[in-house]
Amino acid sequence: SPKGRRKYKVVILGDGGVGKSALVIQFVCHRFLEYHDPTIEDSYEQQCRIDDEPAHLDILDTAGQTEFTAMREQYMRNGEGFILCFSLTDRRSFDELITYKHLINRVRAGEEMPIIVVGNKCDLEQKRQVKYEEGLTLARQLGGGKYFETSAFLRKCVDEVFHGIVREIKMKEKER
Ligand code: GDP
Ligand code: MG
């Protein structure tokens, strides 16, 4: 069906080391990567069923900071949903998320993009530097208010994030 071919273009952004690649690879390949070259920027495709509808995700796993590569530029322009990821063990990465929101605003001026905020590494509870309530508050400031605490290591809440962004994209479409 045409619906089955519907592609959802998603971009994951956030500081180096927060676990963007680990989350994407857990979602797509069901395994935890101890190490993934932090300079590799690549896209991943995954078919799944979300709320009884087939969905085809095309996810750009970004690398590096806020500079633009040609691939990033193209994905930022065509992306339908954005996942803003920080590490719960690194407050700096939390404070930096606003920078990535500004980047989206710059590329997609005047558009209200679906956004989900993710606090990763929740398995490292004893190293936590950001409270759940702070993550939730930031999610409300930056986007629709959807906030998830994840662990790529334990595969905790990983599907919820990627299914969640598709749900947000669908909701925005229905509003139009
Ligand atoms: P990226 O630069 O944002 O793509 O981060 P990576 O996915 O390369 O992860 C950076 C480091 O954090 C790697 O050593 C990962 O193994 C580790 N890591 C990623 N996610 C988690 C997690 O949920 N829990 C723990 N304990 N470590 C993680
Ligand atoms: Mg990476």
Automatic annotation (TrEMBL):
The protein's name? small monomeric GTPase
What keywords sit in the KW lines? Cell membrane, GTP-binding, Hydrolase, Membrane, Nucleotide-binding
What is one term from the GO cellular component aspect held by the record? Answer: plasma membrane
Q: Which residues of the full protein are shown?
A: 7 to 182 of 219
Main localization of the protein?
membrane
Q: Give the location in the cell.
A: Cell membrane
In its keyword annotation, does this UniProt entry include GTP-binding? yes
GO biological processes: signal transduction
Which Enzyme Commission number(s) are on file for it? Answer: 3.6.5.2
Quote one Gene Ontology molecular function term: GTP binding
Q: Does the keyword RNA-binding apply?
A: no
Q: Which organism is it from?
A: Elysia chlorotica
Tell me the enzyme class. Answer: hydrolase
